Amino acid sequence: MILHTINRSPFGSSCLQSCLDVAAAGSAIILIEDAVYAALPNTQYTDQIAAALGKHKFYALDPDLKARGIHEATLDGIESVDYDGFVALCTEFSKVVSWY
Amino acid sequence: MTDTEHKKPKPKKLLFLNRRAPYGCSLPREALDAVLMASAFGQQVTLVFLDDGVFQLKKKQDPADIEMKNLSKTFAALEMYGVNEIYVEQASMQKRGLTLAQLLIPAQFIATQELSLMLEQQDQVLSF
Amino acid sequence: MLVIDGHSIATDKEGYLKNLNDWSKPVAEAIALQEHITLTHQHWEIIELLQGFYQEFEISPAMRVLVKAVGQQLGKDKGRSIYLMGSFSESPAKLASKIAGLPKPTNCL
Questions:
Q1: pLDDT tens digit string along A26-69?
Q2: In this structure, what DSSP letter does residue C15 have?
Q3: End-to-end alpha carbon distance in chain A
Q4: B8-61 pLDDT tens trace
Q5: From C108, which residue of chain B is nearest by alpha-carbon distance?
Q6: Neighbours of B101 (CB within 10 A)
Q7: Nearest-CA residue of chain B relative to A37?
Q8: Which CATH superfamily is C2-99 part of?
Q9: In terms of CB atoms within 10 Å, which of B45, B81, B89, C95 comes out highest?
């Protein structure tokens, strides 16, 4: 199984879109760095991510959420993880695919 | 009028256009330093936040865990530096689900059309 | 580099502390001495004001902003370039920041 990492803001890059198009059902997606903005509610991507939640497990890196002031209100269904949690995910999946 | 006053150049209208999210690259920090420098030298400064740039003004930023300097604190100094012309592009805010109440300093909405006019009225526009 | 009580303290080429946590009153006095200044009450109140400014905004203020902040907090008589130049020579914003253990004002070229 694959863990997809995305590190670009969905508003300025096609990383999130391409990843969602390509990722197979059951693979997991972790939002890091500027990609954590995809975890905001009420954006133009909210519906798409909400729909993808049934297909993928979503994570967001907590230090990056905190840095950007968006840790208190993220979309339901996106789990925040710390650095240790990120490392654990990387070892849990057999492959990591980076979108950057 | 004294000699020195006579020679003093007229302040320029400078618009700083910020389009990047705060911690993904060093441009926002550099823009802020340039804004403070320009205003310290008496220039007429306008700050505009467009696209992901609007995220720079989001409240409650705390980048300690990613070991970066908090931009928010320095934004709070803009008032001391006499920088009061601060605008966020309305469509950029809407796309990102942000409201003026979620921003850490007072800013005004500007529509895309108005921004287009504003750019024309400047002596220089600096993009970050 | 400065040496205080046998401890060496790292500074950059211009004499600004590399690590803000190294600052102490004896360090301030040593930096001031290098600049031929003996610190008095007039100096310390500016140093404290600068440290407060840095805590609040994470920058050292440019001259015109330092003048404004001093005027607001210590009274109009002191909020003048002439007053600050009398205490800290011809470039008060730079020199006072250095003695206060803060970075050089970002907006000083």
A1: 999 999 999 999 999 999 999 999 999 999 999 999 999 999 99
A2: S
A3: 20
A4: 789 999 999 999 999 999 999 999 999 999 999 999 999 999 999 999 999 999
A5: B37
A6: 6
A7: B96
A8: DsrC protein, C-terminal domain (1.10.10.370)
A9: B45
**Is there an interface between B and A (3+ Cβ pairs < 8 A)?**
yes
- Residue ranges making up the domain that contains B107: 11-127
| pLDDT recorded at residue B6 | 59
What distance lies between CA B15 and its chain's CA centroid? 8
Q: Provide the b/e sequence for A75-97 (b: ≥16 CB within 10 Å).
A: beebebbeeeebeebeeeeeeee
Which residues of chain B make contact with A69, given a CB cutoff of 8 A?
Answer: 58-62, 72
Find chains touching chain B: ≥3 CB pairs under 8 Å. A, C
Nearest neighbour of A67 by CB, restricted to B20, B52, B62: B62
Chains C and A touch (3+ CB pairs under 8 A): no
Decide if B62 touches A, using CB distance below 8 A: yes
Q: B58 vs A46: CB contact, 8 Å cut-off? A: no
Q: What are phi and psi of C91, to 5 degrees?
A: -125, 75
pLDDT score recorded for residue C1 = 81
Residue A69 sits at the vertex; the CA angle it makes with A63 and A72, to the nearest 5 degrees, is 85
pLDDT single digits (tens) C65-97: 999 999 999 999 999 999 999 999 888 999 999
A64 close to B (CB below 8 A): yes
> Thinking of the domain A2-99, which architecture would CATH place it in?
3-Layer(aba) Sandwich (3.40)
The residue written with tokens 């610190």 in the block is C39
B20 within some domain: yes
Q: Is the pLDDT of residue A2 over 80?
A: yes
Judge whether residue C109 has pLDDT over 70.
no
The number of domains in chain B is 1
**Sign of the alpha-carbon torsion through B34, B36, B39, B45:** positive
User: The complex's ipTM?
Assistant: 0.81
CB contact under 8 A, A37 and B96: yes
Look at residue B2 in the predicted model and tell me its pLDDT: 46
